[in-house]
Batch of 2 targets.
Target 1
Amino acid sequence: MGIGLACFLDKAGTGPSANLASRGGLHGGYETAVIRVHSDGKVSLFAGTHCHGQGHQITYAAIAAQRMGIDIAHISVVEGDTDRIPFGNGTWGGRSVSVAGTAIFKAADEVMAKTRRIAAHVLACDAAALLYTKGIFSNVAGKSISFANIADLAYHGANLPRDAAFSPGLEATAFYDPPDSNDPQAMHLAVVEVDADTGVVDIQQYFTADDCGVLINPMIVEGQVHGGLAQGIGQAMMENVAYDAVSGQLLTGSFMDYAMPRADSMPVLKTTFIETPAPSNPLGAKGASESGTIGAPAAIGNAVVDALWHLGVRHIALPLTSEKVWRAMAQARAEASAVPPVEMAIRPPGPSSHTRNGFR
Amino acid sequence: MNDADTPRVIATEGIEASTVEDAQYIGKPLLRTEDRRLLTGKGRYVDDVVLPGMAWCAFLRSSHAHALITRIDTQAAREAPEVLRVITADEWAAADMGALTVVHPMPFSDGRPMNTATRPVFARHKVNHVGDIIAAVVANTREAAQDAVELIQVEFEELQSNVDVAKALDQATPLVHEQFGSNAVFDVRKGDEAATRAAIDGAHKIVELELRSNRLAANPIEPRSYACSYDASEERYTLYATTQQPHYLRRSLAVYALFIPEHKLQVIAPNVGGSFGIKGNFPVEVATVVWASRLVGRPVKWTATRSESMMSDTQARDHFTKARMGFDADGRIVGMEVDTLAALGGYLSNFAPSIPGNSYPQTITGLYRTPNLFFRVRGVYTNTVPVDAYRGSGRPEATWVNERLVENGARELGIDVVDLRKKNLIGPQDFPYRTLSGRSYDSGNPPLLLEKLLTLSGY
């Protein structure tokens, strides 16, 4: 049995455009959000990121709904169309919540500032004297108007503040350039058992503690940890693109030869979180998408080294196929007993070996 | 915001948004809105897109890792039934078409720009990895396109290849791109070499390891797929693409590859079935699909098979590292030295150089106080599929090196592995923490995080 630890951090958010440019980068680090209130008070939220499994729809809607004080069900999130959405920098590097989330925050604030001005005008009071709850503005006298009614007025264009600078409509576009990227941290602990005869490694338990700042949706974040872990376990245990050393032929040309993790590759997993807010955005959020992949190879590798240390094994290469582990044990035992190593080929791998096609 | 010293219990069992009282949504485990649709087969992916009169594209790919193309004969393919067009590097060049561009270049340590050979839309005169695209066929059906691909005759003069990152800079190793006189792409150094050497050489305990980071393929469940139609009356393209970055893709294609006004190309990214970095802005097949839609005057689609994905989707990691770490008698790190060769493949892909050149060093010292660091990474060409971003992008490689050294250090010193971490972890008062690799860590509480982990695991 072996226990392995990995303490590490991630770098998320892609950072400010100026930093990227100073390194010769040919794209910006900002993100774009449009909040368009329709005349019936429902909202379309356009973002320049693109969700490919991260759950942006509910996450962005939550940020906007809370910041605007409206029902989350009234918000539709739209991504993925260059005709409808102003230039955005996409989803990668754990940037969406911290950068797009803040652009949404800012667009929401701009919309609500205009909304409050209309409300104050209609309710004939100062904006500061307005009460706002459950989507309804009221003044101290008890007169009230709903967010939806205000939207209607905004698009009707008539009963609006008499200010030459005030225009109809109710929408805002924010291009937000973050002042910094952010640094999520995590620690993993892997418990493994190595079969002394076959070299098969079984990950029995896996524990993670993550600090990705303020969690907007803890369920999605936990899902991100799980998903990243599956891929980290893949790198640790079985995945390897192999090319023939002489011909350069791709040996792992399909799933027959490239081993992908499956449901039964996953150990019992327990996760926990702390939240140290990111100083660089008002949500306090850090990227939460990649930690599973970052820590797992190290934690599992360390655990296997722990299990085999007493045999004299000091390092092991990934992926931890049973053949590799078995050879490491055999080599260490041979060195320890000062006997010339037995020709490996005469000892065939056991029935549960993961070796395929005999290539390395 | 939470007090970092009293972390709250996180409940993650999902809840419906409608059960939440208005305007208290942040921090709640709200169920995702797309799941029911995606899980009941109502997702809309690019391969589901069917456009009227749609034609199919298939690619001829190199079966050699490194070879000169001495002859291409596409006549039989052009004459095959249902074939609309056959395209090679010659047509692309004759039309003065462009190329992808590296958006994150990395220099040599003396300031020289990197040795840039970007991934071409079609290999010209030479192939540099198995899977390198030699030609494209557009036909009425997918089968007709694939059949015609097999009719293209190519003669190669095979060259010696190298697929081992560790050998890339050896004298005897064949050059992937002879014009550079080397397989080196860039050379980035950080830290004080002399001071670090001295600190480690004089340390009470030195751990030295050779480590590889194994090469990976992302294999998202949805393969790459592109479908494009061209409206001749408006001179406008509508491209459905599996992409993480719709605007970058539009820009790459319009500004760098096809030389069309940006607003004349609409990129629509519907549901994307996973990507993890490989559906970044400029995968080479998409330029052909877009161009072909204008050439043949009909919508054109290409969807990768899984085998194609394995030899064309960008791959990941593939490092060879020699590293040392020095410890004092109490187990404190006195210095770390890292020398890494990072394979970038047969050509440079968009983000590739910055992954080992910029992202990798930023977390190489991890969460440990490291008073001396000398770090060197050299990107190298090998005759393999180009490398680019994949979930983690440089940080898994860095953590593998850092944590293996720390772990072995603890064991060789006879110090408990947890205690050694505790001795070296930076504390909450150290943030913002400036590291010798250049990154300043913004906020955190590593000792508390460790405590939480130990409690959770019952260590």
Target 2
Amino acid sequence: MPTDMAGELGWLRALIEQVRDHAIFTIGPDGRNRTWSEGVHQVVGYTEAEFVGQHASELFTPEDRSAGVPERELAFAAEHGSASDERWLVRKDGTRFWASGMTTRINDARGDLMAFAKIFRDLTVEKQFHDDLRGSEERYRLATGAAHEAIWDRDLNTSTMTWSDNFEQLFGYPPQDVGLDVAWWEQRIHPEDRVRVTNSLREAVANGASRWEADYRLRHRSGRYALVEDRAYIMRSTDGTPLRMLGAMAEVTERRRAEEGRRHAQRLEALGRLAGGVAHELNNMLTAIIGNTAYLDKSLSAGDERRDFTRSVLKSAERSAKLTRQLLAFAQRQMTQPVQLDLNTLVREMEPILQPLLGHRIALDLRLAPQIGAVLADRTHVEQVVVNLLLNARDAMPVGGRVTLETQPVHFDGSASDGSSSLIEPGNYVLLAVSDTGTGMDAGTLERAFEPFFTTKPFGEGTGLGLAAVYGAVKQQGGYVWAYSEPGCGTVVKVYFRQAAT
Amino acid sequence: MTAAAQLLESPQPNHHLVQLYAEPDELLTVNVARYVGEGLRQGDTVLVIATAAHLEHFLRKLDLDGACPTEALRQAQLSVLDAEATLNKFMVDGLPDWRRFELSVGSSVARLRARAGNGSVRAYGEMVGLLWSAGQRDAAIMLESYWNRLLGSQSFSLYCAYPIDIFGHDFQVATVDAIFCAHSHLLPSGPQVEAALERAMKDVLGPRLEGLRPLIKANYRPTWATLPPVEAVILWLRNNLRGSADEILTRAGRYYRSSSLPRSTYGEMLDANGHGR
């Protein structure tokens, strides 16, 4: 061997010895290992003494050995010059790993088979990744078939996104309108959520996370915002470089609304108990104050200046009593005289006085469904509900607009899974809905709209007991009430009264 | 505080007030707003049965007076009903039916009574006025008797309004006596009317007026209802000075309507014995 050739081989050997993540060795034509490198030890655990002379097929799984795979591989390499493969191999400790390797025929100077050079590396992690990917793709296919989730695939290198076909069905955008770039998606995120969502995604990708999830509002093609739950896998290469994201997005507006409604109802119930308890005690004390002061007042002569004091006490006590009555209304502890009422008749009787309440700039539209059935309710309570809802609508439209008052019979059979209606006990109800074209409410205001003393009006212009009274009145009749609103999109309040048994 | 103001601000339970008015109804608006607004301020529960047009005026005036009608409506401290729709609920063959009246209006008052707790209930109604305008005067008086039955069984005060121009021909004893007899107090039409009447009487009667004054004061037509002096004088004129009454009252009406004085009610009232109250 020429000196320069020997030197070159020495250099090559030194290089091979430096390679730790690949097993590099040679196999004789007899199928036994001839050489060893440090990579062999790193990848399969054998020392040189253990490895050299050992039959190369020992690295194969028993099932592959039984199937003659080692022999076929060498034969293939002998015949074609090389054979590459990916398969499970076995380490010295018996554990399996996914190997990707190549076997190359080495000829002597005459061109006869001298040996085989084999190189492989452990690709278990990568295989897992691909398996995950395939699993995800399987889920993709499954989910694509599921109506309630839109599946998306984002290439993190090109910042492109593709969506499953049912994206149109769920969010209204036909395929030709859906942009392929990430910006298209980002632009449809609610402005208040956009920074939070894009930042969290960026951080998840940058921080090596394998998953990302976020809840946010995504604009439907109709313009409304849908509350979505977005969950995604982040696919990375073996060195952690983020490659793709595969996500599933589901609209949860109704579910969240139902959860929120349940939580809200519990909170109002607790508030009601508190308010009711306080008001009841206060009322008892006020009764004594009013009774005794009135007695004292009467015992004073007409010209007695001290009557100014007793009158003042009486006036303040009466005002306090009025407040306690309002609190008792919210706490659902008002006296009620339920009678069978036809809401349509009641609304028609009220119609002439509703317009004066609304003023000239607001049009009133009545949409009363025929044959809605009677409800069993206290007439004053129902009138109070109607008046409150219309006054709220009026206050939400300072420059005018339209109020729609609607009635219709509704049946709930307990199977509803959408939003608030899932909280309603099964049965027949009459819906009284009041909607306006006003300023609407943001989520924070809507959340607290039924709470006593909560008001958005300037100090002194409202007690914040109007909607609280509606809530109390409706609940006391065994009904349900919900408000839906968005800033700039108006408000609709739906009240469900139980239909009276016929 | 004048007697009329006292009546409007603090009516006693079972007081049954009546107001006569001519359109435009500025005086009526002022008085009703005072009656309702003061009731709201005192914590009373108030029922208003009015026409839509009047209701709008009342609500605006209540708002201007700082009585917060919106908040009262929200809390059902103030309830409003349409006069015509309410009337239709108990009228049968052109006359009010007691059982239906009790079921509708009686129930409304009872519900308000129940909600009022320790507070009082005051009601204002224009249904009788609608019947009167429609020429159903017997029905109006019958309805007044039903209201009185309610006042006898439930503790509340009531304020009625009739579209009767006191300067017009309708305002004479034969026509309005039944109305007065159905009420406890007629609310005065105000000092502006008094000034207009005085001027018209001087115009028409001239020096005779001073000679007639003692007669007028002594012989005004008393009823068991309490009448304000001006209205009493007009009734006297219609009854006893028929030859001049038309001219005096036409002039008085003209003076009154052209008066730049603000309309208000706080004139004096005379009881059945002609004493100031």
